[in-house]
Amino acid sequence: MNSPALEARIDLSAVAHNIEVLQAHTTAALMPVLKADAYGHGAVQVAAAVMSAGAAEIGVATIDEALALRRGGIDAPLLAWLHGSSADFGAAIEADVQIGVSSPRELTAVVEAARTAGRTASVTVKVDTGLARNGVAADEWDELRDGVATASAEQSIVLRGVMSHLVRGDEPGHPLNSLQGERLDEAVADLRRLGVGPEIVHIANSAATLTRPDLSRDLARPGIAVYGRSPAPDLGDFGLIPVMTLSAEVLSVKKIPAGQGVSYSHTWTAPSDTTVALLPAGYADGVPRLLSNTLRVHINGRSFPNVGRVCMDQMVVDLGADGGGVEVGDRAVLFGTGEHGGPTALEWAEAIGTIDYEIVSGIRGRAVRTYVGAPAPIPNGRHTPVAAGPG
Ligand SMILES: *Cc1c(COP(=O)(O)O)cnc(C)c1O
């Protein structure tokens, strides 16, 4: 079968490898973070891969993301921690999704949903220890803590966990990391004094899992490292393997004369007679337009520069006067593992002043995901189809 014209190939054996790398750095159990459709890699397929590689639970942002995993046949423990006013706590409780709670208001809504369902909700309190994003604010702590004690006593909820999120995990030596750990421990101690200790405590993200084992507590929540990207590129790649390879088919090869401008506004003009190739990848697929005239691709192991504007659907690369031996139907790697000097998502990110998280989670549009290195059926025995799907 021919590969899709624009393909995001997801190597699930690399996911399994990355889980092993993470587990080798921590005694904590792993809760891979699969929010945003597994950072653009496909949540159901990645979920099956991480669970068969030994992960304990899965974390996502929203209840909708958790329910999509359930529909995909994933019955691993799931936690969702970001809720709008329309969040369906009842559906989460029915589907056995643990609910992260960041305010007394959310706790009240969860308790009401549990009462309506006639079931006990599994709750993880998310404490703001310094990020000032979601998480229980300091001035709401006492009310939340007392509410957790009351709701636990009446068995509307069971306190499964207490969690927080780091501000500067990618700077392992920064004192804020330890301070956040202490604040988290204080919150746990405060709950224990009321007789409602959590079953588990967690704060580590990818960076802390790899560099601060002392912050691991019971569970670690790595995201980006699962996908093989270093959470702290300055500190190295930790032996992680990038999971996504974005490649495009060469749609045409044509000769252009010296002086010919290429693509909108002719931002690049051929300095001498040359050959250019057309690729079906553009900013609607997640190739940043800001990379115009900056990115490079690998075709048959050789590097060629993009010339002219990256458009919505297309871009052009310069093959040089001799055409570089490139033919219609060859494949251009836009980014991948970086093996043999190939381009990487980190290279794109650094060129435009962002992080590779934004690059990989932004691949979309016409990019079709395909999966290789599929794991054995997930531990509960259900088989999760690992088939090509729309990106
Ligand atoms: C996204 C996220 C993570 C994972 O962070 P990485 O830097 O990708 O490892 C962990 N915990 C929470 C609460 C998150 O929102």
TrEMBL record:
- Gene name in the database record: alr
- Which PANTHER family does the record match to this protein? ALANINE RACEMASE, ALANINE RACEMASE, CATABOLIC-RELATED
**Annotated positions of the N6-(pyridoxal phosphate)lysine modification:** K35
Q: Where does substrate bind?
A: R133, M312
- Record domain Alanine racemase C-terminal: where: 243-372
Task: Give the catalytic activity.
Answer: L-alanine = D-alanine
The GO terms describing molecular function are: alanine racemase activity
* Enzyme Commission number(s) of this protein: 5.1.1.1
UniProt KW keywords: Isomerase, Pyridoxal phosphate
> What positions does UniProt annotate as the active site of this protein?
K35 (proton acceptor), Y264 (proton acceptor)
Q: Which family does it belong to?
A: Belongs to the alanine racemase family.
- One Pfam annotation reads Ala_racemase_C
Listed pathway(s): Amino-acid biosynthesis; D-alanine biosynthesis; D-alanine from L-alanine: step 1/1
| Role of this protein | Catalyzes the interconversion of L-alanine and D-alanine. May also act on other amino acids.
Give the CDD domains listed for this entry: PLPDE_III_AR (cd00430)
SUPFAM superfamilies membership:
Alanine racemase C-terminal domain-like, PLP-binding barrel
- What InterPro entries does the entry give? Ala_racemase, Ala_racemase/Decarboxylase_C, Ala_racemase_C, Ala_racemase_N, PLP-binding_barrel
Which region is the signal sequence? Answer: none
> Which SMART domains does this UniProt record tie to the protein?
Ala_racemase_C
**UniProt protein name:** Alanine racemase
Q: Which domain of life is it from?
A: Bacteria
What cofactor requirement does the entry state? pyridoxal 5'-phosphate
